[in-house]
Amino acid sequence: MKRAITIEPITRIEGHARIRIDLDESGRVSDARVEITALRGFEQFVIGRPAEEIPRIVTRICGICPWMHHLAAVKAIDGCFGVSPPPAGNLLRELAQVLAHIHDKILHFFFLAAPDFVLGPESDYSVRNVMGLVRSEPELAARVVRMRQLALAMLERFAGKAIHPVAGVVGGFARPMDAGEQRDLLADGQVLLDFACQSLAFAKERIFSRFVEEMLSLGSVTTGFLGTVDAQGSLRLYDGLLRLMDPGGGLVEFPVEEYDQFLAEHVEPWSYAKMVYARSWGEGISLDSSQPRGIYRANTLARINVCDHIATPRAQEELEAFRELFGRPAQGTLLYHWARLIELVYACERTLELLADERIVEPLVHHVVEPGAGRGIGHVEAPRGTLLHEYATDGNGCITRANLIVGTTHNVAPMQLCVRQAADRLIGNGAADEEILNRIEMAVRAYDP
Amino acid sequence: MNWDAKIIAFCCNWCSYAAADLAGISRLQYSGSIRIIRVLCSGMVHPQQVLHALDKGAAGVMLIGCHLGECHYLKGNEVALARAEVIVDTLEDLGYASERFELTWVSSAEPERLVKAFHHMIARLADLDRGSPVFTAGGAGRLINET
Amino acid sequence: MKPRLNFEWLHGCSGCEIALLNSGELLFSLFQLVDIVHFPLLMDHKYIADPGEEGDLSLPEADIGLVTGGVGLASHLKILTAMRRQCRVLIAVGTCAGHGGIPAMRNQWTAGQTMETVFSTATTDTAPVPDGVPALLDRVSSIDEQVRVDVCLPGCPPRPEMIIAVLEALIQREEQRLPHKSVCETCPTVRTGKGQATIHRGTVRAAYTPGEPLDRMRCLLEQGLLCMGPVTAGGCGGRDVPLCLRSRVSCRGCYGPVRKYGNQLLDMMNALASNGIDYRTIIDRTSLLRFSGAHGRLRPKGERK
Amino acid sequence: MIGHNGSVDMTASEPVGAVMVIGGGISGMRAALDLADSGYYVYLVEKTGAIGGAMPQYNKVFPTNDCSMCIIAPKLVECGRHANIRILTLGSVLDIAGRPGDFVVRVRQKPRYVDTEKCIACGQCSAHCPQSVDDPFSGHIAGRKAIYIKYPQAVPFKYQIDAEACLYLSQEGKCGVCAEICPPEAIRFDDRALEEEIRVGAVVMALGFQTFNPAVIKAWGYGVYPNVITSLQFERYLAPDGPTSGVLHRPSDGKPVRRIAFLQCIGSRDKHHCGNEYCSSVCCMYAIKEAVMVKEANPELEVTIFYTDIRTHGKEFDRYFERARSETGIRFVRSRIHGVEPRGTRGDLRLHYISVQGRQVEEIVDLVVLSVGLETADDMVSLADRIGIQMTPDRFAAISAFMPVHTSREGIFTCGAFNGPRDIPQSVIGGSAAAASVAVLLSGARHSLTRTASFPLEQDVRLREPRIGVFICHCGTNIAGVVDIEEVAAYAATLANVVSVERNLFTCAQDTQDIMGQQIRDRELNRIVVAACTPRTHEPLFRATLRSAGINEYLLEMANIRNQNAWVHGFDQQTATAKAKDLIRMAVAKVSGLRALHPLRIPITPSALVIGGGVAGMTAALNLALQGFDVHLVEKTGQLGGNALHLFQTWSGEHVPRYLDGLRSEVVNHPRIAVFYHSTVVEVAGHVGNFTTTLRGDSGRRKTVRHGVVLITTGAKRYIPEEFEYGKIPKVVASIEFDKLHMHNEARVARGTSFVFIQCVGSRNQERPYCSKSCCTHSIQSAIKLKKEAPSRRIYILYREIRTYGQRERLYNKARELGIVFINYELHGPPKLSRERDGVLVEVWDHVLHRPLQIQADVVILASATLASPDASDLANLFKLPLNADGFFQEAHAKLRPVEFHVDGVFVAGLAHYPKPLEESISQALAAAGKAGCLLARKEIALEAYVAQVDPGRCDGCGLCIEVCPYRAITLVEYEDEKGVVLKSVVIDQVLCKGCGICQGTCPKQGVDVAGFTCAQIEAQVDAALDDTVAEGT
After folding, report:
1. Which of A404, C240, D108, D147, by CA, is between 20 and 30 Å from A156?
2. Does CATH number 3.40.228.10 belong to domain D718-867?
3. CB distance B79–D964 less than 8 Å?
4. So what's the ipTM on this one?
């Protein structure tokens, strides 16, 4: 008897999605896919708006990473209006971005992903969650909560609103940072860095060592990767060149303005999310798990894979250790969590670097802006992958066209492969208990979609 | 004409409300669609109340004040005039035909002018609703707020 | 026994949930206060009763239901109806649930137009628009347009302490004390009642002396910046300075109208016009309803009734 | 003895605290209201069936273009309702006996034939009356019935029967239909004339005027050619409530009018035809106004005004004239037309005149409007004669410029056009001035005869559920004939909170008031809905009923089911019945949300601050002191007298310095007046009733005074000419300098044989587009004196328009008779002056002889302008008062509130308001003192009940309402909440607020609204209007 299994909703992720697994008469998996079931239509309703308002609208694409959309949009509109921010403006924007990364990574790792590992994928759903974590690891939980709050407080200190921010403005940043703030934030940043290092140590000791097998096998597929690096090939989150690695490890770099020559989006009738693939490989896209084509991944592991090194010492140290174990590129899906903590260390170190730059307290934080016609593309590395905003404006400085490629969409196609691989591996004879289904979800959760 | 929708007419105590009284004294006849609400000044009516009336199913809303320069309160009707522009623009923004709103000036001694304004408004609204489902349903659309 | 709580999200961005997760100690007090029995962001309770099987949407019974996001898809209606059925008290959390929020901006286009635009961007392969997904509703509505709502707690995101306070009041059966004043209430900027005759473009920044506190800066609206503070429900900064003002940036109205049936566009335009300010310098007035486009306020362009 | 302000030694006995005002026009009404408001009982005797005088006939008034009816209607109602004014309509005074302070006046009232107690003014009688006659109110261009009201807003709003026209009365019992159908049976065919003897302390004669009847002079063709009409008829044609609903057409054939000619000075300045030698003062302005109005409505019309001199000497008048001339396309032709002839048989009219270029011109027009002048009616002249007061040769009351409202008989005062032709503001000023003068005479009897009502304790309804009583009026058949009252009453009983529904034949009847009171007590009603006529006329009555039944008078709402329902849907019973239900439902919805209102009452500091010690200031100060109030008089110099110190005589030849000495010593010696010399106002706090003002003396010493009112009499200054070689040629002098030279017979004058006066120096130009008003008269007076001293002197007056308005025209005529040469330089430019030997050469174009003229002048006298005081703007800022574009204080309303401001408790008089001659300054000063006295006499003021209130739960001090308030009543304050957070809110000054609700219309959060008209209450009405489930009962 044919049968379909639906996991709805996929939980402990941000957003609306479900997994559908089709079983054939013999109970074998005939198809499995992740369906993204929500669409809000930002590309439509930003049309006609004054472009300078866009950074304050597109934040609502995602409540977890509003800063990423805010900054990608603000950079794109800078482009439309032909301005570039003064040094302090850029430094403050990047500082906000790395702090948002820190905040996000702690959330994802400890609140959403950790219950699977700390409490075990087999534990009951009613305890396999952050509430369960609080009960079983109260001290850790309390520390995590405090650290998230600290990162948030730092952000609010100089940028006001942390969720759905407003401080990035076309032409720069809304307000300067004063020396007092800089001093305090430096001290706080140090606390965060310590926590990041301890977190990675804790994860390595308590989690990764216990789940080595899963890390390499669950949802494991072979794909290309996309990330951002600087001219020296170092990891960058705020700006730089896009670097696309093919499944064989070959690298190509391109400026973001040329993204449409390298990337394209594919539509499936069962998902609102478009699937980005590597157009430049010239092979189109295929979701066939036996012979996937055009598929690459983004997000933490991708960035760790494409960069040659990380420009901060402790993260670089961790990167080297990681590569020692898993090679380059590393393909294990659950390794995303590991890579995420390495990025957390980097983000904390970068925070201190930015705050140490004396230009960050310069009073000139924005330039005068004249609205007008133009085209602009803004990109940042968001926690969930490379984020691209492209806008065109009319003579009045209002939006005429928008194209948004959101971090998660890079990973929608590979997620299909992962889910299929996990389902194939875990479901035998049509038997699928809660633990099995949760393990399949874990393959999705690794991407923090 | 089977047009039984209602029109709210906010009338200033010092001019148009008095003109409406005088229209009665003069036995001028006009449509039963008009519902006059007495206000102290045309400048007292908040555009929200215009919108509210339309949302609640009024076919149209009239705001009738003293002639410019004759406001009992110096400049209430001037403010009403500035607001009328907002109301017209915003009704269109909100998807209402701005013809559903009318600002007009009538002195306390001009009942004919008042009645003419009523006739004019009714004709305009009937025109607007002709052929639309709203018209055949016998009233303007309602916003669903019942839940 | 602790009251049971269902927490669902619909047509939103998860910012409300994240705000709650960000609240530190308050989060623990939430866990203390209630038993969360359904919360897709944090726990693995599924809609389908029998795991892996097709069937009716099943939600646990709960004393309190929190819903974020508005209603934009057919599936949202299904979830919302189930929430209403299963929860004794239903609370609309966040501006989307209460007024439609940013997603309701799409109400200026039909669902078809939106699909068409989204699936025909420059980098999108030519393909039919998806049809094997829950249908996009023609209008994004607030949840109170669809079901009875007991408490409406706006914010984009709402302040977590307000969420906790509402729950506490509910549990203690006290009267709800929601903020009912505008953003200006706690805004310390200097107001004189006299403003500029025109409103500047959004690219113009606030004038102030760096290093001086906010209570030395002139009210942004009086500086000629379009600040939606006066027509927007307050509370974003708690009893302290409104959040956007902390960045010296003007309010855009994210808590929705001050009064439930207020209209941020009309109220703002009116306040400007009444003061003799040329409101026509404002480009794209409808974006003043960007947070409160539900309740039929935003409609497809060109539609006239 | 009589002092300067008419104080009478009243040791003989206590005066009577009542006053008779004869004449119910605007001047008489003003006097009556001011007297009644300041503590005297007033008998207002009106010869027609309704008060109002001439104003209700006008369409608009100049220069504000206000609707005349709209501005007078509230005054009519106020008079009609005033507890201390008794209106005696159809009344005439037979004689007056007694002495100042105690007169007995015999008054005769003609029968009305309608019982005013019963008449409900439903108009059915008039509708059925078969007898039509010409309506004098419309200037006989329309008809009215034999039973009629004078005009639709008439007060008293009661019908009357024209006995001559009535068939029943004139042809014994022939008709009587009105009596048969009158619903309340108010017709009294057996009504008889009444004679009454009334005891009063003083009499005010406000006898008014009649318009000149042009039919007596054949040349105008009035009454012969239908297309020749008077300006008054024209006014009725333009009026939207007139017989043609404001549409103008030719009376002869109803065709549209294309060309109109206004002919000025008809019955004025016309010694030869009619003996009216004086100028009527108002015709130029009203003709321009009518021309502007008709031109605005019909832009294609050709309108020409043929005039002698354009006399637009009043405040803002010249601007109005200039706008008419330059913007509206009205043609002004300086030429006197001497006759109108018909052209053809189609009604066209032909005019001949001589143009300024001296050519004969003929013009054909459709319509000729005769700008008829003002005159005193014969019966008024004979009344004056009976009473024994002196009249001028022009048949106006004889008055002294120093006592401009006193007749020749003590205790009898006069005001309005009876004192000489004048416009509305002058008449209003006269009314208040007369009241002020009466108040001095009768100050001992204040409040002795006035009535105040007392009421039971009011029940507190705050915590009670609404219990609404609905009273539905049949109004005879007026409502019940159209509306199914039974059905409506049954419906009303189903509405929420309605506990009782009563139907009344006449809800306004006295017995219904008793029933209403009984119901309120028996059924514990706490809110009342009256479904009847309009709140504009009947709300006060029902409020009084509520008050006497012990509930707050504001817990009342009227559903206007007569004027706005039964009467406008007379042929559609179904609609009217359905709408009556809606209107009652709306009223119930509103009344449910009403709260009791208690207008704030604030005590008044019974003293006045008078700023400026000129004649106006001293006059006002003395009047107030004699009325019994303390006065602080502030003078910035070391001497009282102001500009009058430079004057020698009034236009009528009265000696100014002697008068000034007397006035000064009375002021200085009056125990209630404290004079602060060398002092200025530097700081002001408070508001009406309680001001605290800081004065600074010359030593810098500050003094604070407390007072209830302020009078601004800061005067003006003279213009120092920069033109006409002034200051360069010693023989060119300004007029007040010349007066001194003349008085001392200085050599230049004594030996002079040739004098040239140049008018409008610094006036009526681009910079100061206003007329300084007194210079024409002044120059002519000086010229006459020079000529009389030595008839051989050659005297020239170079002018633009001669503005010897009113009875001053005699001076102009006399000057011409004496051979003084008048040369108009309007058209050909101002004269040129140059020094020549020991004299001055004046070159000017002779407009009569059409050639240049050179005059060797011994002295050139420049009639220089009067300028606003440079101190005015400081004072205006301190008291938040407006100034006009010329820097003079801008009164609250140019027509009806000429001495008041929108800021309560502050008054203006004299040159601070506008240039004017001494007589008018004194009159205005008395008026200002009178208005101030009204306030001070009340001891406390009840403020407006409908004022804005701040909802502290909603207002967050966003400040958007601050600037919109026209009264500057809103301010922003900071306060700390219980947690010490500093919050903001607006506060409304309850004294300054007038309740317009502009703030309410602005506030985005309903943080401020006007009590009685709140957003919630208005919305409740809207909801109830649109949704019949809204007020459904449970």
Report:
1. A404
2. no
3. yes
4. 0.91
